[in-house]
């Protein structure tokens, strides 16, 4: 009889008692109800309202934060007119002043 067969016999003699305990314990541990919150049917109405509002607040807070800070998340574009357009605006303002009309920012 080899060493491997001796090891198998040793485990075969040890198996019935120990494995039956572990199999029962593993069946009990599959249900994770003891590790998490109780079902909602055990909550009172004010607790249900609070849970709903807390969940909604947590779920909507990040998208709201992103939407309110969109201008800070991207670089601001440089608002500048074409040089030809600026020259035309200056020419029209000078012409308006020459005619006696006050300069206006609106063309």
UniProtKB/TrEMBL annotation:
Record key words, sorted: Membrane, Transmembrane, Transmembrane helix
Domain of life: Eukaryota
Chain segments annotated as transmembrane: 49-70
Protein name from the UniProt record: F-box domain-containing protein
Organism whose genome encodes this protein: Dracunculus medinensis
